[in-house]
UniProtKB/TrEMBL annotation:
It comes from the Bacteria. Keywords: Carbohydrate metabolism, Chitin degradation, Glycosidase, Hydrolase, Polysaccharide degradation, Signal. Residues 1-29 form the signal peptide. This is chitinase. It comes from Catellatospora methionotrophica. InterPro entries: Chitinase_II/V-like_cat (IPR011583), Chitinase_insertion_sf (IPR029070), GH (IPR017853), Glyco_hydro18_cat (IPR001223), Glyco_hydro_18_chit_AS (IPR001579), Glycosyl_Hydrlase_18 (IPR050314). SUPFAM superfamilies: (Trans)glycosidases. Transmembrane segments: none annotated. GO terms for molecular function: chitin binding; endochitinase activity. Residues 41-470 form the GH18 domain.
């Protein structure tokens, strides 16, 4: 069975990683049975509010027929150190609910906004339209993320703060009470966004660690995260009873066995409908060698190869071993690659990304080009997977991932234009087919993608995940 579903050679790796009783955790363990009105299988993808600025990717561009959950990024935990007040706010009021669509070209239904008189404009209004046209669709607000988890430790510190924070999040995003006082003058108000969001996704990166910018973090975060999840579940259930529906609660969790230093996995997951495991960023542009961002199976050449969980299959096995039910596991995939320049010896060799700019919109200037960049912008990859412009596509048989090699790629850097040997690791439909097979084989809940605007114009990556729903 394994050999018919997965590429040759993976069967042994899956058996090793998921052996030794790791499949003993049944789908119904730890409250694992899906709620009747929650999606039984999940293809979830992030939509970022800044997509409308960068790529010019709008809600209308979301392939709603190919997925069933959208995670809107991001909402922001807030905390006032002087007063102790907690809050839960929108990240970008303009993109979220103030931007008026004066014409029909960027709207879901081809109808321009009516100004004044709507109270909700921008992405929120378009998401409402998208849901109306696709009744199967669920939308969650994702809270935090790498740069906006600043105050999670603070708002989770005490029972009083947890209760107030959860109440504030439900008030803003579930009850739909949006701030007023901006422009348009009628934007926002009490209950104006109710019904847009079907749940809350927690993206605390990471409890017990500073990560990008956490304040007042400490070892107590690990248990406080569990208590915060329980408080969210309690209050969402109360609100759900009032509204006659089940509100989703999910979370983005880190990969590999190191995840347990951040979370009490089994206890935390009990409160969740499912958890999205971020099985990517195993190797990053700030690392020491040019390695794949996401490994499907173990690569003995990887600097972390001694850790058998340092790959997608191993991470899934570890979560199962920790008592997380298969029915609550959603496998994360990146729609972006990692670019390593001045990399003369190729994969797992040294590189020097000096001069790369993560904020650049130019594909060859940034360390993380998207699949859209590779296919639709640069054309170094054709939709059929062929290469152009001196690039060669290779396959990492150990990790189960593709990569590109060019001995003389040109890059426009902050330090000037250089020509250098370059490796780009990335995700493609073939590598995603392996995830799809794994999900089906083990009865996992589904797949999650970061993020929609990074897919190709023909939605090749989200299409490759779609069999999860069938």
């Amino acid at each position: 069975m394994l050999r018919t579903l997965l590429r040759p050679g993976i069967a042994g790796a899956v058996a090793l990683a998921l052996g030794a009783g790791f499949l003993a955790a049944p789908a119904t363990a730890a409250g694992g049975a899906p709620k009747p009105d929650a999606p039984k299988k999940v293809i979830s993808a992030y939509f970022t509010n800044w997509s409308v600025y960068g790529r010019g990717y709008f809600v209308k561009d979301i392939p709603a027929d190919k997925l069933n959950v959208i995670q809107y990024a991001f909402g922001v935990p807030t905390f006032n150190q002087a007063t102790g007040a907690v809050g839960c706010d929108v990240l970008d009021p303009w993109a979220d609910y103030q931007q008026v669509y004066w014409g029909p070209e960027n709207t879901v239904d081809g109808v321009a906004d009516t100004y004044p008189g709507q109270n909700v404009y921008g992405n929120f209004n378009q998401l409402r339209k998208l849901k109306a046209a696709n009744p199967h669709l669920r939308i969650e607000i994702s809270l935090g993320g790498w740069t906006k988890s600043t105050w999670f430790s603070s708002v989770a510190k005490t029972a009083e703060r947890r209760q107030a924070f959860v109440s504030a999040c439900i008030d803003t995003f579930i009850k739909g009470n949006l701030p007023t006082g901006g422009w348009p003058e009628d934007a926002g108000g009490i209950g104006v966004a109710k019904g847009i969001f079907d749940g809350i996704d927690l993206d605390w990166e990471y409890p017990t660690a500073k990560a990008d910018s956490n304040v007042d973090y400490g070892p107590e975060d690990r248990h406080n995260a569990t208590l915060l999840a329980q408080e969210f579940r309690r209050q969402l259930d109360v609100q759900g009873r009032a509204d006659g529906k089940h509100y989703l609660l999910t979370a983005a969790l880190p990969a590999a066995k190191s995840s347990t230093k951040y979370y009490e996995l089994r206890e935390f997951t009990k409160s969740m409908d499912w958890v999205n495991i971020m099985t990517y960023d195993y190797n990053v542009s700030g690392g020491s060698v040019a390695g794949p961002s996401t490994l499907f199976t173990r690569d003995p050449r990887d600097p972390e190869a001694d850790d058998w969980t340092w790959n997608t299959v191993g991470t899934v096995g570890y979560y199962l071993a920790q008592g997380v039910p298969a029915s609550k596991i959603v496998v994360g995939v990146p729609f972006y690659g990692v670019q390593y320049i001045r990399n003369a010896d190729g994969l797992y060799k040294a590189f020097d990304n000096t001069g790369m700019n993560p904020d650049s919109l130019v594909w060859d200037s940034k360390p993380q080009p998207s699949y859209h960049d590779l296919v639709d912008v640069s054309g170094v990859l054709t939709p059929a997977g062929a290469t152009t412009g001196g690039w060669t596509r290779k396959w990492n048989v150990f990790a189960g991932e593709p990569y590109l090699w060019n001995p003389a790629a040109e890059h426009v850097l902050t330090t000037g234009t250089v020509t250098a040997p370059t490796t780009i690791v990335y995700t493609d439909p073939k590598s995603l087919a392996e995830r799809t097979a794994l999900i089906k084989l083990l009865g996992l809940r589904g797949a999650m993608a970061w993020e929609l605007s990074q897919d190709s114009d023909d939605n090749a990556l989200i299409n490759a995940l779609n069999p999860v729903l069938r």
